[in-house]
């Protein structure tokens, strides 16, 4: 792998470029994005040069799509005629079934391997990029068949993922979307719903002061911009609706058990999961 084209040099794309450099990648890293984003990525040292999409991908051994989901879907439709034969195209979209399906229909000259790095920050853009963003974080790959991971291009890509400190997990696209509806999309909507409710119920800043850090923790995700989430909601609505229905049922069960002995087992089960989550999601220390 001598040349990488990162399409969308925001937080994830620029961090991927920085991570490759820190891991020892000595080839060229090209960026495709808006002029402002290219300027920020160049200033951060995440890319070597900004180029138009067609020019960049024609030179690239690896094409890394780190745009919004809707932009990834659109880009996939225009890529094939410009791709270098034998290249690997991957993405960083947070829903997978639609992206993988679109790629299977439109990409012929190169291999496509869907991906989703479970890493991020509350701030966006290349100015917030970090070389260590992926270290210790799960990086899901979504091949249709496991043999897709055995090609030379895929082996080299997964080698670089390990080099930047990511923990690779393989799932089918539909399985990925079902799981993230519970682990990512539901927490966002639960936080959004709680903050929206309290915005109506707490009439003044004085009433809002009657709260502790727990409420701040619970509503942190509510600060996420709708523009980021609109594509996620649009591309995984069935699984998200099922996750919400299960959560609503759980809340209704809690309401019925408020003063019963059954609440103890609910608290104990919840505490057990909380401990398991923190034990399994603690980032590995930097080397």
Keywords:
Rossmann fold; 2 domains; alpha/beta; single chain; 6-phosphogluconate dehydrogenase C-terminal fold; 287 residues; eight-stranded mixed β-sheet; 53% helix
Give a quick summary of the entry.
With 287 residues, the chain is α/β, with parallel strands linked by helices.
Describe the 3D structure:
There is one protein chain. Helix 4 (69-79) runs parallel beside helix 5 and helix 7 crosses helix 11 (237-256). An 8-stranded mixed β-sheet has the order 3-2-1-4-5-6-7-8, sandwiched between helices. The chain is built from 12 helices and 8 strands. The protein is globular and about 65 Å long. It has 2 domains: 3-171, NAD(P)-binding Rossmann-like Domain (Rossmann fold), CATH 3.40.50.720; 175-281, 6-phosphogluconate dehydrogenase C-terminal like domain (6-phosphogluconate dehydrogenase C-terminal fold), CATH 1.10.3660.10. It is an alpha/beta fold.
Topology:
Blueprint: E1 3-7, H1 11-22, E2 28-32, H2 35-44, E3 49-50, H3 53-59, E4 62-65, H4 69-79, E5 88-91, H5 97-106, E6 111-117, E7 138-142, H6 152-163, E8 167-170, H7 173-201, H8 205-208, H9 213-218, H10 226-235, H11 237-256, H12 262-281
Parallel strand pairs: 1-2, 1-4, 2-3, 4-5, 5-6, 7-8
Antiparallel strand pairs: 6-7
Helix pairs in contact: 4-5, 7-11
The largest β sheet comes out as: 8 strands, mixed
Strand order of the largest sheet: 3-2-1-4-5-6-7-8
Give the strand content: 5-15%
Say what the CATH topology of the largest domain is.
Answer: Rossmann fold
The quaternary state of the protein chains shown equals single chain
Q: CATH class of the largest domain, anyone?
A: Alpha Beta
Estimate nothing, just give the exact number of structural domains.
Answer: 2
CATH architect. name of the largest domain: 3-Layer(aba) Sandwich
Counting DSSP H or I runs of 4 or more residues, the number of helices is: 12
Structural category is: alpha/beta
- Per DSSP E runs of 2 or more residues, the count of β-strands stands at 8
């Amino acid at each position: 792998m001598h040349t990488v084209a990162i399409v969308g040099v925001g937080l994830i794309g620029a961090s991927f470029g920085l991570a490759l450099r820190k891991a020892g990648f000595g080839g060229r890293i090209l960026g495709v994005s808006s002029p402002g984003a290219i300027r920020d990525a160049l200033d951060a040292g995440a890319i070597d040069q900004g180029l138009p999409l067609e020019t960049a991908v024609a030179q690239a051994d690896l094409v890394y799509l780190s745009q919004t989901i809707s932009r990834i879907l659109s880009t996939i439709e225009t890529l094939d005629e410009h791709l270098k034969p034998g290249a690997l195209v991957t993405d960083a979209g947070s829903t997978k079934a639609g992206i993988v399906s679109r790629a299977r229909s439109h990409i012929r000259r190169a291999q496509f391997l869907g991906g989703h790095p479970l890493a991020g920050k509350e701030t966006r853009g290349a100015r917030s990029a970090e070389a260590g963003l992926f270290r210790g974080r799960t990086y899901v790959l979504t091949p249709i068949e496991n043999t897709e991971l055995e090609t030379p291009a895929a082996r080299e890509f997964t080698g670089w993922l390990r080099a930047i400190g990511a923990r690779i997990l393989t799932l089918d696209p539909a399985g990925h979307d079902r799981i993230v509806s519970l682990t990512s999309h539901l927490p966002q909507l639960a936080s959004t719903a709680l903050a929206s409710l309290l915005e109506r119920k707490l009439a003044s800043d004085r009433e809002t002061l009657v709260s502790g850090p727990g409420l701040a923790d619970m509503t942190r995700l509510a600060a996420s911009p709708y523009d980021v989430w609109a594509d996620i909601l649009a591309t995984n609505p069935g699984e998200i609706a099922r996750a919400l229905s299960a959560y609503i049922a759980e809340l209704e069960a809690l309401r019925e058990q408020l003063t019963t002995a059954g609440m103890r087992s609910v608290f104990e089960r919840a505490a057990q999961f909380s401990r398991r989550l923190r034990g399994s999601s603690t980032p590995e220390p930097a080397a």
